[in-house]
From TrEMBL:
The lineage of its organism: Bacteria, Bacillati, Actinomycetota, Actinomycetes, Micromonosporales. Belongs to the AHA1 family. Transmembrane segments: none annotated. It comes from the Bacteria. Residues 25-135 form the Activator of Hsp90 ATPase homologue 1/2-like C-terminal domain. This is Activator of Hsp90 ATPase homologue 1/2-like C-terminal domain-containing protein. InterPro entries: ASHA1/2-like_C, START-like_dom_sf. Pfam families: AHSA1.
Amino acid sequence: MADVALVPADDGNWTLIFIRELRQPPETVWTALTDPAELDQWSPFQPADDLSKTGDTTLTMIDGDIREDLPATVRRAEPPSLLEYTWGGDLLRWELEPSGTGTRLTLRHTLTTPGMEAMVAAGWHICADVLQHLLDGTPVGVIRGQDAKLHGFDELKVKYQNELQRYAS
């Protein structure tokens, strides 16, 4: 499991903090977070543009044959340490810190829809697993939408619900 936490956000919403240690240096991870071709191999969306450039773009959610375009704005892009963008109403902030020969990846995902925290954590967990395979040179193919249920999504969601429950009180 990744390290997770749930904290109040400044806007009254909640921020899910998801931390994963990756074996590659920040520069390599940065490319995987920003390059459309690499994002298409591990993330839950296809970006219309390179996310290393600030400005408006579109992130297309994909679930089988269903596609949903969501507006996004890259607000900060400071290679190879900080990437921040909106995704629909949510805000994602990716922080990359050197950790030994690898990277400590911290995602702060501020959610505008309450009650989605465990689902979002489980989704990012699967995405991070796929990302690590991609970075290791052993890609397993993108896992999105309903396909995630074939890769332990429901079990992960329950584990994260239990983990995040302590923040609800």
